[in-house]
Design goal:
301 residues; Endonuclease Iii, domain 2; Arc Repressor Mutant, subunit A; binds iron/sulfur cluster
Amino acid sequence: MTDAGPLHAALASWYAAHARDLPWRRTRDPYAILVSEVMLQQTQVARTVPKYAEFLDAFPTLGALADAPVAEVIRAWSGMGYNARAVRLHRLAVEVVAEHGGRLPRTAEGLRALPGIGPYTAAAVACFAFGARTPVLDTNVYRVLSRVVHGLTPPERSALEPLARALLPGPDAPLDASAWAQALMDVGATVCSVSSPACGDCPLEPHCAAAPALLREGAPRALAEASVPYVAKQGTFAGSTRFYRGRIVAALRGLPAGGSLSVARLAEATGGLARDAIAALVDGLVRDGLARRIRGGVALP
Ligand code: SF4
């Protein structure tokens, strides 16, 4: 693909009419955008929207987050899952206040150097908050670009970033890098799904290498899924380590400030896990900054 102009034009007009109205798209505050991106890493949009507002009410600035006790941040994360994200976000805020005067770096490289920020989050904050012309590649964007350019045969993962970089809109394009990324995300979330892409409703259909075969075959699930790059297989949640860690943190979160639970009470909270299993889970939570041992029990940090 050499000329991305038709893709930019098609997506710009579609996005003007179909963009999802999401609260983190109404701000350029890098801290708020960072919060949204950390939340969206492992939580669906519908669940993130109300929690995002609640979290920003509780911690409206990066400084406010840094000043808060970490236990309070873990409590505010209730309902989101993957509680380690709350601890990482808090650590990051403390570091930015201590080392960067409370201001997030403006570039993806600068953001990437902070603790707990991966390449995706760094690119998203740089692009959405600071207007950096950099690809923002989540799984939706990967899938859409892969299908558009490579059809039903996804390329090596290493080929996608250079491709995404080559397709970035330039200064004369009808949309900027931020709108381009968000439009691709919306196409991926609402039209170009993993299992049943609706090519007939897609603004990219005239330019998409996968569309002719998908339309001809009626987009059967097997064909659609075979064209998805790098589907992460989710293990069963119930009974997993993550499940039990979540139960323990939920039990600790329900305590008044400074309260603790004994191993016997944690066994109840986890539905009767043995002591050594609880001890191993608590070790992991302590290591991740989600709990601390105190005399006779376990508490939030
Ligand atoms: S035309 Fe079909 S396969 Fe191509 S991007 Fe659109 S929905 Fe996805």
